[in-house]
Amino acid sequence: MSDKRHPRTLLVHGGTRRSHYGEMSEAIFLTQSFVYPDAATAEQRFIESGPDEFVYARYGNPTVRMFEERMALLEGSEDAFATASGMAAVSATLFSGLKAGDHIVSSKALFGSCLYNVETLLPRFGVEVSFVDGTDLDQWRAAVREDTKLVFFEAIANPTLEIIDIAGVAEIAHRVGAKVVVDNVFATPVFQRSLDLGADVVIYSATKHIDGQGRTLGGIVLGTRDFIRGTFEPYIKHTGGSMSPFTAWVMLKGLETLDLRCRAQAESAARIAEALAEHPAVERVIYPGLPDFPQRELAARQMETGGTMLTIVVRGGKQGAFRFLDGLDIALISNNLGDARTIVTHPATTTHQRLTPESRAAIGIGDGMVRISVGLEDAADLIADFRQALDAI
Ligand SMILES: *Cc1c(COP(=O)(O)O)cnc(C)c1O
After folding, report:
1. Whose CA is nearest to atom 5 of ligand 1?
2. Cβ of 79 below 6 Å from ligand 1
3. How far is the CA of 218 from the centre of ligand 1 (A)?
4. CB under 8 Å to 112, separation ≥6 — which residues?
5. Is residue 2 part of a domain?
6. Is 14 in the pocket of ligand 1 (CB under 6 A)?
7. Whose CA is nearest to atom 2 of ligand 1?
8. Do residues 244 and 328 both lie within one domain?
9. Where a domain ends, among 199, 229, 256?
10. Are residues 178 and 207 in the same domain?
11. Could you tell me which residues are beta bridge partners of residue 242?
């Protein structure tokens, strides 16, 4: 398949492998292992497997391979490896590429489990970690050293939606030969070309927009063939975080509509952001597509749209936020994102509950803050739902 084709075409056809039955929809190869025609083939397969040859599902599987290839075509990477969850992807990227004595620099505004890996686990294995405010390039400049092996960050912070300048950080990291690892969940592979901006490794929790319908956990790591096959694969295949064929099939179905879903969700997010900014019960709307977004210029340079996520600050702190959440009829209270259903989250009491109030304040999370993952419902219905819940605060 030519990678010159439009992403929408790649998302429907990319990576497809058909069996001799000529099935239309990708088959689920629900098999743990594979049968060899003779002993010599088995021996050869254990020395080296070709791209269409498999040994054991923990190492690779035809359905999983289809998902990996389709994602690699979309992202424009040489190769990819699918994992059991987004966290399997993040932790295996860090642990496969680092050893005791190494130094890394990480943004401090991270998804809770990412922070646990970087702040608690890596130091336990002798990796030195420096934390920076990822939006401040001067802090990256000061923290990156000659011996820095890797830099790690989420391109858009959760839930404050602060954006990290990938090209700017990559320039600093590449001067000392450090690898740039980007967790790109919030920006989605549809709206941001992280590799073109200078990232070396891009990670997705496929649980989010890629499934997009709230069914399965999954993750994927994309990068050079050298990194994926030489560094990542030996680690993941022996530590067990591979994706199941069933999950890969669900993800393949998700990819077929990924572009359409993300665009529809981003369009609604922009409309909702504008509508809510005018409501008297709303103190502030944070959305990268709004003219008053502090990093508007960087957002426009780095992302094709403002994305599918927005964050609002309602008046009345925790009580105001709870009244708003409890008053909603369409949007659901949960902590996932990227779903077909609109989801509202109160970070201070859920996803970021474990942080002290001071740490929350330091990364800009207040008690009135509500994160909204915009779904596929009609935007006017959603705006009406948000308005009536805000009116009742
Ligand atoms: C959800 C998420 C993860 C973890 O993904 P799982 O699939 O839940 O393991 C990592 N990073 C970010 C930014 C996320 O939103």
Report:
1. 86
2. no
3. 9
4. 351, 352, 354
5. no
6. no
7. 205
8. no
9. 256
10. yes
11. 83
HSE-CB for 326 with a 13 A CA cutoff: 8
Q: In a mutational test of the pocket of ligand 1, which residue from 83, 85, 87, 351 has the highest number of ligand atoms less than 8 Å from its CB?
A: 87
* Cα–Cα distance for residue pair 7/84, rounded to 1 Å: 25
- Which DSSP state fits 205? E
Q: Are residues 121 and 222 part of one domain? A: yes
Ligand 1 pocket mutation pick from 113, 343, 363 by most atoms within 8 angstroms of CB = 113
Q: Do 228 and 310 fall into the same domain? A: no
Task: Please tell me the distance between residue 109's alpha carbon and the centre of ligand 1 in angstroms.
Answer: 13
pTM: 0.96
Q: Structural domain of residue 162, as residue ranges? A: 7-256
C-alpha closest to that of 82 among 204, 259, 209, 194: 204
Query: Would you say the CB of residue 92 lies under 6 angstroms from ligand 1?
Result: no
Domain boundary among 256, 290, 322: 256
Q: Is residue 18 assigned to a domain? A: yes
169 and 21 both lie in a single domain: yes
- pLDDT by residue for the chain (393 residues), tens only, comes to 456 899 999 999 999 999 999 999 999 999 999 999 999 999 999 998 888 899 999 999 999 999 999 999 999 999 999 999 999 999 999 999 999 999 999 999 898 899 999 999 999 999 999 999 999 999 999 999 999 999 999 999 999 999 999 999 999 999 999 999 999 999 999 999 999 999 999 999 999 999 999 999 999 999 999 999 999 999 999 999 999 999 999 999 999 999 999 999 999 999 999 999 999 999 999 999 999 999 999 999 999 999 999 999 999 999 999 999 999 999 999 999 999 999 999 999 999 998 889 888 888 999 999 999 999 999 999 999 999 999 999
- Residue 146, Cβ neighbours under 10 Å: how many? 9
CB of 313 within 6 A of ligand 1: the answer is: no
